[in-house]
Amino acid sequence: MELTPELLLTAYSRGLFPMSESRDDPELFWVDPRRRGIFPLDGFHISRSLARRLRSDCYQATLNRAFGAVMEGCADRAETWINTPIRALYNALHARGFAHSIEIWENRTLIGGVYGVTMGGAFFGESMFSHRVDASKVALAYLVDHLRRSGFTLFDTQFLTPHLASLGAVEISRAAYLRRLEVALDQAAEFGVVPLASSGQEIVQRNAQTS
After folding, report:
1. Contact 207/171 with Cβ under 8 angstroms?
2. Cα dihedral value 136, 140, 143, 145, nearest 10
3. Dihedral sign for Cα atoms in the order 89, 149, 44, 172
4. Cα separation of 185 and 120, whole Å?
5. 101 and 115 in contact (C-beta within 8 Å)?
6. Would the N or C end of the chain have less CB density within 10 A of its end CB?
7. Judging by beta carbons within 10 Å of its beta carbon (0-12, 13-18, 19+), is residue 108 exposed, middle or buried?
8. From CA 96, how far away is CA 5, in angstroms rounded?
9. Which domain holds residue 159?
10. Is the dihedral of CA 205, 67, 113, 60 positive or negative?
C-alpha cells in the first residue's frame, strides 16, 4: 500500500506514526508506543540558563520560513530514521498546511529548529536539531508558547527522552494518550494565525505566569 499524505493523517488520528530503520532504507513501518511522551503545555520548564539565553535574544526565531531546511538539519546526523519517503511525505503535508516548523537563526545562519504535524488541537512533534548551545531548547520554548496561545491542547513528543524530561515532558500510557488525542482532534486550533512571540523575554514572562 502506498503511503500518501492522506493516509499519514489518518494514522496520526489513530495514534500511529511512521519511521524508517535508516536514511538508506526505503521502507517505512508504523509505530504505536505503549508509553507516550507528551509536553503539558502549562508545564514547560525554563531553567535559569535557558531564561538567560531567551532574554538575550542572541538567537532569532521564525515560523515556517525554512521547513525543508529544518528537516534536513534533523536528518543530518550519524543515524536517522528520516529517509527520502519521509522527506517527501512531510514536505507534502507542509504544502497542504498540516506540517510546520520553527526555525532558530544566528544572524542569517540556521542553527536549530523543530518540526511536526498539526490536526485539530494536537501538535505531533517529529524531530528537532541544534547546531549551537541551547538552540533546540529555544525552539521548543517558542513552540510551546506558540501552541498555548494558538489554542492547542496536546503536544505529542512520541517518546520521552532525558532531554525532554528536563524541560517538563512526561510519559503517559497509550490509553491515556488516545483519550487526550480524541479530545484534541475535536478542537479547533490554527498554527499559523497567531504571530510567533516577538522576543525570548516575552516567552520567559508568559511562562512565569502560567507555570
Report:
1. no
2. -140
3. negative
4. 4
5. yes
6. N
7. exposed
8. 9
9. 5-210
10. negative
Biggest CA pair distance of the chain: 50
Whole-angstrom Cα Rg for the chain: 16
Q: Is the pLDDT of residue 36 over 70?
A: yes
- Tens digit of each residue's pLDDT (9 = 90 or more) over 143-189: 999 999 999 999 999 999 999 999 999 999 999 999 999 999 999 99
3-state class (DSSP) for residue 13: helix
Read off the CATH number of the domain in which 78 is found: 3.40.630.70
Measured between alpha carbons, how far is 169 from 188 in angstroms, rounded to an integer?
Answer: 23
Task: Provide the number of structural domains found in the chain.
Answer: 1
At residue 128, what is the residue type? Answer: M
DSSP output for 16-61: -EEE-SSTT----EEE--SEEEE--TT-----HHHHHHHHHT-SEE
Report yes or no: 189 and 98 within 8 Å, Cβ to Cβ: no
18-37 burial: b if 16+ Cβ within 10 Å, else e: bbbeebeeeebeeeebeebb
Question: What distances in angstroms separate CA 150 from CA 33, 138, 187, one per listed residue?
Answer: 27, 18, 11
End-to-end CA distance of the chain: 45
